[in-house]
Amino acid sequence: MKPIIGIIGRPEITNEDDKVITLNEKVRQAIIKKGGIPLLIVPNQDIDYLSFSPHSVRKLTDEEKEELYSLVNICNGLLIPGGSRWYQYDEVIYNYALEKNMPTLSICAGMQMMCRIENEKENVTEYTNKEIENTTDHFKTNVKYAHKVNIVDNTKLKDIIKEETISVNSRHRYHVQVLRNLNVSAYSEDGLIEAVEYPSKDFVIGVQWHPETMLDYDEYANKIFDEFIKKAQKFDKSI
């Protein structure tokens, strides 16, 4: 059977000012192209999320957390997509998948969320994400290749990519500046953290770029998704 990939939904507003929970179409298609079954995981609180900042939303109850766990238990892998912000439900889902050693691919803001969570576990007080001030433009929409990244030796990402340097797209205005519990697996050419991974897990990788939008033209984006789906195929949901 094809692996089921849980994808965390994001609150957004449409052009008609309708509030929706979204699944990015490129993410959905990427999972299908690579042989997975996409499953949207939506938040389960009766809350208008866009009316609150993430920190002002009431905390999930134990029952609500258990409901989210039951959805994650259906999955063979987890994809944490990009976006402008995340909520407690994102973090609860990530932490539960991490405990299960579930293959997890985090993209852009999803990677930044991973780093923030791990920093908070270590009581790091510095602000994790900082607005980019470097000379390289990291916010370029509709550009196939925005800049290069250097892959770090002896990392899971290097084992997948098998190259020293690759070119990536980029559309983020903030970057990770403080890191705990995770290893850096790639830097941009101007020195920003571009990929991280959990050293003790089989496949928990975050990338700052958007490989889901590069599958039609980039072999390395395909390698990342191929490995993610392969790991998910082998994941034992009974753990």
The CATH superfamily appears as Class I glutamine amidotransferase (GATase) domain
Radius of gyration: 17 Å
CATH architecture: 3-Layer(aba) Sandwich
Strand order of the largest sheet: 4-1-5-6-15-14-13-9-10
Mean of the pLDDT scores? 89
Question: Can you lay out the helices and strands and say which pair or pack?
Answer:
Layout: E1 4-8, E2 10-13, E3 19-22, H1 25-33, E4 37-41, H2 62-72, E5 77-80, H3 88-99, E6 104-107, H4 109-121, E7 129-131, E8 139-140, E9 147-151, H5 156-161, E10 165-168, E11 170-171, E12 174-176, E13 183-188, E14 193-197, E15 204-207, H6 219-234
Parallel strand pairs: 1-4, 1-5, 5-6, 6-15
Antiparallel strand pairs: 2-3, 7-12, 8-11, 9-10, 9-13, 13-14, 14-15
Helix pairs in contact: 2-3
Q: Which descriptors would you attach to this protein?
A:
nine-stranded mixed beta sheet, single chain, 15 strands, globular, 239 residues, Rossmann fold
Brief write-up:
This protein is of the alpha/beta class and 239 residues long.
Structure in words:
α2 (62-72) packs across α3 (88-99). The protein has 239 residues and is an alpha/beta fold. The protein contains six helices and 15 strands. It has helices at 25-33, 62-72, 88-99, 109-121, 156-161, 219-234, and strands at residues 4-8, 10-13, 19-22, 37-41, 77-80, 104-107, 129-131, 139-140, 147-151, 165-168, 170-171, 174-176, 183-188, 193-197, 204-207. The longest helix is centred in the last third of the chain and has 16 residues, at 219-234. It has one domain (4-234): Class I glutamine amidotransferase (GATase) domain (Rossmann fold, 3-Layer(aba) Sandwich). 28% of the residues lie in helices and 25% in strands. The radius of gyration is 17 Å and the shape is globular. A nine-stranded mixed beta sheet has the order 4-1-5-6-15-14-13-9-10, sandwiched between helices. The protein has a two-stranded antiparallel ribbon with strand order 2-3. The chain has a two-stranded antiparallel sheet with strand order 7-12.
